Amino acid sequence: MQEWFADFKADFQLNFIDDGRWRWIVQGLGNTLKITLFSLLIGIALGIMVAAVRSTYDKNKEAMSKHKGAGYHLFTVVNAICKLYLTVIRGTPVVVQLLIMYFIIFATSRNDVMIAVIAFGINSGAYVAEILRGGIMSIDNGQFEAGRSLGFNYVQTMIYIIIPQVFKSVLPTLCNEFIVLLKETSIAGYVGIVDLTKAGDLIRGRTFSAFMPLIAVALIYLVLVVVLSALVGKLERRLRKSER
Fold first, then answer.
1. Full-prediction pTM beyond 0.85?
2. Between 170 and which of 14, 71, 135, 179 could a Cys-Cys bridge form, CB atoms 3.0 to 4.6 Å apart?
3. Domain 2-243 sits in which CATH superfamily?
4. What pLDDT is recorded for position 71?
């Protein structure tokens, strides 16, 4: 036991203490959280807009097609653009999208973290959009009619009546998407960003000791996911209480 503890201490010293290698883990964790948070904000904003367009078109397509006005044609074009966005983003790997963003679209930029945020945000937006669209389509049409009876237009009905109900129903799925996004950011090292996974790999490359740095990275991800899951559970319980 004493010998094992001595080996563990020496391995810990080599991987994290010597040359201040623990700073890579701290830097990587910071970049991972930063990319995840801002990507999530972009994904939610983008997802709400795309879901609103898609669900509005699907719910009002028949009514609008009778008039064939400029609004109908404009909505058809915007809806087609949204469907193309969803098809392309959901049909290609996120790592390929990240590489395209880094080496083609933003080839002249040196702000690696910003590029990763945009890439992951656009990717997340497609999945959030479909989650929210499913939630909106599941809301009974009587809710929309109730909004109109209160004097709300369609946009006001969506903001004040529909969206709050949708968020309650799709919250578990949205939070699961957030957890998936957190783990997806581990591929940011493909473009040289020192995220949490890349930090562990850098330490492994310097010390030629794979076990401790990679297990440490895995444990940090696990702790983050457990904490997020606990917060989500607490939020769900609070929302259920508010409905009573």
1. yes
2. 135
3. MetI-like (1.10.3720.10)
4. 67
